Amino acid sequence: MSRIKRILVTGGAGFIGSRLCETLVEQGHDVICVDNFFTSQKSNILHLVPCANFELIRHDVTLPLFLEVDEIYNLACPAAPGHYQYNPVKTMKTSLAGSINLLGLAKRCRAKILQASTSEVYGDPEVHPQTEDYRGSVNPIGPRACYDEGKRAAEALFMDYRRMHNMPIRVVRIFNTYGPRMHPFDGRVVSNFIRQALTGEPITIFGDGTQTRSFCYRDDLVEGLIKMMENDSDFIGPVNMGNPVEFTMLELAEMVIEQTGNHSEIVKKPLPEDDPTRRRPDITLAKQKLGWEPATPLRDGLRKTIEWFRSIDISNYTPPTPRY
Prior knowledge:
Layout: E1 6-10, H1 15-26, E2 30-35, E3 54-58, E4 71-74, H2 81-84, H3 88-109, E5 112-118, H4 145-165, E6 169-174, E7 177-178, H5 189-198, E8 203-206, E9 212-214, E10 216-217, H6 218-230, E11 239-241, E12 246-248, H7 249-260, E13 266-269, H8 284-290, H9 298-311
């Protein structure tokens, strides 16, 4: 292995962040996990706490953070509709103030910093599949804007720090990702369908079920994030990371019903405002620049995710409480 690095992972107790921390700890690096536990669970990283090369800090990235690190993975931000729409102002602050604080930390430490951006920067795309040079079709004042525009503004900040200070930044646009440790009430379609099927509830499809998404298994994504960070070329991104295989919501629902063995009824409800009808990444850049592409078929990833959902007590998880 290369030299041991001091690595900060913000949002490190989330379902993606916890797997990233796990992988970096296994590689022998000194890992600092920072999380405010607004949307994540301490249980996701409890098994890492006894490790000598792991440290957990409860902290909100909207406040300054003073550490000495070599690399920063910024995954801090509510990333699921059920969470980011619960407190949209907090979501926007996390993207903006969080990025400013972490970029300042990286500048002082001369650390490499990776921003976990999102496919939501493309909005409801008019180009399909989405390439990194597509500028998007985003409603800046809609109910999803706190997340979409927050992440777009964060990308702008990262690029300006690069231009002004020649900082070693990396920007990854993450498409729909799923896997073990997803919050059962995060509002993501995979967790919704699995939870509903396992509890015998009707599976809720918004719209007519023909809208599409592309689903990347968590471990494949984590491998891609590490490849992007370790990339020492001039390639800073943005780069799409996701699975280019497209599924309709009906296809996903039927696959979940089949794999859980629970014959839940499928119920259709109106499509939420600004919900994209199609979403699929063009990952040509990731293949060319990083040699990365996802390896886990949806059926295999769903099986592992359903196994995890069966292993937990869902009563230990609570949905966001509506404020209005």
